[in-house]
Design a protein that fits this description.
With 444 residues, the chain is of the alpha/beta class. It contains 21 helices and 15 strands. The strands form five sheets. A five-stranded mixed sheet has the order 2-1-3-14-6. The protein has a three-stranded antiparallel sheet with strand order 12-7-13. Strand 9 and strand 10 form a beta hairpin. The N terminus is likely disordered.
Length: 444
């Protein structure tokens, strides 16, 4: 495939880069350790000013209030600019226009690459971000790296776990599966005992699919700057497709979309018996499925090889500083405050799942009982999962677009009887064509 860098997504990003918006901080480290550990950042905090933050995460309201209390000359304005494609399009447009961009932006890990590749968000290394290399768990810290730069600080994480309806499992004498082969057998047993019960739901989800491929050892993406390879024919991907194809062929998964009314109903009445999902899920179950409180429990994710403890991330987001930020020192100070130390602990207390080692390892966090899960100390399972997430995962620098065409390709395996392997091949072909058209060097 050719390498055309004068048009498309890459071309647009490089045009923004060429505009030379913004600069980097300078100064010497100071041992304060309170988020003002660089002279220029401390001076900015003493001077004060306004920091505009585009974010949808509700726990940031308390963090912003705490930040303003600590630094009374700083005004933090939180703006909910939407989520997913809506916010990313607005953010990219504002950056390209050179006006209207926020000082800080919440960006999911899978979407960060498209901003990092064109340097439209700051490399935070010169601001002191490297001092936090050991502050975060491996998955989130790896996710904010692009080549040698650190383009955001992790805000939360989504180490995966296995949520199951203990009431349903006990009723039908099914043991909690420790491998994916056992998972398939459990699916068969439950559905045979009651055809209304499905082991889970699935109508095709790019995040869930790539997370399980990641856990299986698949590494379909290789990204080094504008040099990319996409290959959904590795051993890990084949492990995933072989297992999941059995579930689809035998109609053992409910054809129900996640987050729909039917999904919540299935989780409540036990007809959807399990979820393999990120550790941020408890709050959603508590608020969205209150009638099933006490029925559900948490276990480690089933393994592709018996005895392993490998996990993966599903979801999570970061805070980045756009190149067009008006006050980068204040922006970084807030980003650091919100993602490490006091801010991180505050967010955990408000219900967020941490990306920080200190919070994951705190005794209060580990010992916390979950009434929804019958008093189970579920954080112990989540924390163990976080420690076992592989670091060497890459997202495409146009993953937002790739995910948007998932249902046009892989989704056909759920609606037309096409195989998952064929669907992934079609997704790969579409992504290769798109990447090449946008000016990347794409191999397969």
């Amino acid at each position: 495939m050719g390498n055309r860098t004068s048009h498309g997504l890459l071309g647009a990003l490089l045009v923004v880069l060429a505009a030379g918006i913004g600069g980097t901080a300078c100064g010497s480290p100071d041992p304060d350790g309170d988020g003002t550990d660089r002279k220029d950042i401390r001076n900015a905090l003493e001077k004060g000013g306004k920091v505009t933050v585009w974010a949808w995460e509700p726990t940031l309201k308390k963090v912003a209030a705490d930040f303003e209390k600590k630094y009374p000359k700083v005004d933090v304005e939180l703006v909910d600019a939407g989520t997913g494609d809506k916010q990313y399009t607005a953010l990219q447009n504002a950056i390209a226009a050179g006006s209207g961009a926020p000082d800080v932006a919440q960006i999911e890990y899978y979407a960060l690459g498209q901003f990092a590749i064109g340097k439209t968000v700051e490399d935070l290394s010169p601001y002191g971000a490297l001092s936090h290399a050991n502050s975060f768990t491996p998955g989130p810290w790896h996710a904010v790296h692009q080549d040698e730069g650190i383009f955001a600080l992790p805000m939360d994480s989504g180490p995966m776990a296995f949520f199951y309806n203990k009431k349903v499992f006990d009723q039908h004498g099914v043991k909690v599966p420790t491998t994916w082969d056992e998972y398939v057998e459990a699916a068969r047993t439950l559905h045979k005992a009651d055809p209304k019960i499905f082991i889970t739901n699935d109508t095709g989800d790019p995040g869930a699919t790539t997370s399980l491929i990641r856990q299986a050892g698949g590494r379909p993406y290789y990204v080094r700057g504008t040099d990319i390879s996409i290959d959904f024919d590795d051993d890990g991907t084949r492990k995933y497709t072989a297992t999941w194809q059995k579930l689809l062929d035998e109609k053992l998964v409910a054809p129900i979309s996640s987050w729909s009314d039917a999904w919540y109903k299935g989780l409540a009445d036990g007809t959807i018996a399990t979820l393999s999902i990120g550790a941020w899920m408890p709050a959603n179950l508590t608020s969205g499925v209150p009638t099933a409180s006490g029925d559900w429990r948490v276990a480690p994710l089933p393994q592709w090889t018996k005895g392993d403890k490998t996990s993966a991330e599903n979801g999570g987001s970061s805070l980045a500083v756009p190149k067009a930020a008006k006050n980068k020192e204040l922006a970084y100070a807030f980003t650091e405050f919100a993602t490490t130390g006091t801010g991180a602990t505050t967010r955990v207390a408000e219900g967020a799942f941490p990306a920080t080692r200190a919070d994951l390892e705190s005794q209060a966090f580990l010992d916390k009982p979950f009434p929804y899960f019958g008093g189970q100390q579920a954080n112990r399972i989540f924390a163990e999962s976080a420690r076992n997430v592989g670091e060497d995962w890459s997202h495409l620098p146009f993953q937002v677009h790739a995910n948007s065409i998932f249902n046009d390709t892989v989704g056909k395996a759920y609606t037309s009887g096409a195989g998952l392997s064929d669907g992934l091949d079609a997704w790969q072909d579409a992504c290769v064509a798109y990447g090449d058209d946008q000016g990347f060097t794409v191999n397969r």
